[in-house]
Design a protein that fits this description.
244 residues; D-Maltodextrin-Binding Protein, domain 2; 2 domains; 9 helices; globular
Length: 244
């Protein structure tokens, strides 16, 4: 699940913690058709942006706007669920959507038969760790060996899928034949893999997240989710004890 969502519920008392961070660079972006010629944050001014309120990407959108100096009055906003935001760009109701630079971008390109472009928030130093393996506190306390074995198996799976995305998708489709289009799934996995590491962990084994990434992510989540400052305790939300 999303690391920022977990931090928010854990800060409110949920007995959970991340034991592995898979997507260490956040793929949240503004995504639109390339022919709109939106290449920088300042190009968003005067455009229409589709946002899904309350999802993980919308939280980073606020952070991104503050970072690059955009105001709500600089553009028009329409809202809906994540699929609605994709459809808004496809149908021309919106120039941009706020979402991942993976499935939404691919969906827009496939539906319109036109190239799409993403302005990645992480390129503007707005980065919060996202897709993570999460466990209950009592599982961490009472079943450490199980979690070590689980993380070993998960790391092997991810490593193998990095080496051969097509084989990974074929293995998934063998188990779940209705999971989706093979070509689309391969392309989506290939687009996702670059977000597994940051420049600090580029040469590190999978799931080896830097302490700075965790610290910066927690600090940003606490600030922009308007949590009590006392919630900024990274060790409360993450342990690397089970990463192989």
């Amino acid at each position: 699940a999303d690391f920022s969502t977990m931090v928010k519920v854990a800060a409110m008392g949920a007995p959970v913690k991340a034991i592995g961070v898979l997507m260490q660079e956040n793929p949240t972006s503004v995504v639109g058709l390339a022919d709109k010629n939106i290449k920088t944050p300042q190009d968003i001014k005067g455009k229409t942006v589709a946002v899904a309120p309350g999802d993980a990407s919308s939280q980073l959108w606020t952070m991104f706007m503050n970072k690059v100096g955009l105001k709500d009055s600089d553009f028009k906003t329409i809202t809906g669920n994540p699929q609605t935001t994709i459809n808004a760009v496809i149908t021309g109701q919106a120039d941009l959507l706020v979402g991942f630079a993976t499935i939404p971008l691919i969906s827009v390109e496939q539906a319109t038969k036109k190239p799409a472009r993403a302005i990645l928030f992480a390129d503007y130093n707005v980065n919060v760790a996202t897709l993570s393996i999460i466990a209950r506190d009592d599982m961490i306390k009472d079943h450490a060996d199980l979690l070590k074995r689980f993380m070993r198996a998960t790391a092997k799976s991810v490593n193998d899928s990095e080496k051969d995305p097509a084989a990974a998708v074929d293995a998934l489709l063998k188990t779940l034949p209705a999971a989706g289009s093979r070509d689309t799934m391969i392309r989506t996995l290939q687009a996702t893999i670059p977000f597994y590491r940051t420049p600090e962990t580029e040469m590190a084994p999978i799931f080896h997240v830097s302490a700075k990434n965790i610290d910066d992510s927690v600090a940003a989540i606490v600030q922009y989710s308007k949590l009590d400052p006392s919630a900024n305790v990274p060790a409360k939300y993450y342990t690397g004890a089970f990463v192989p």
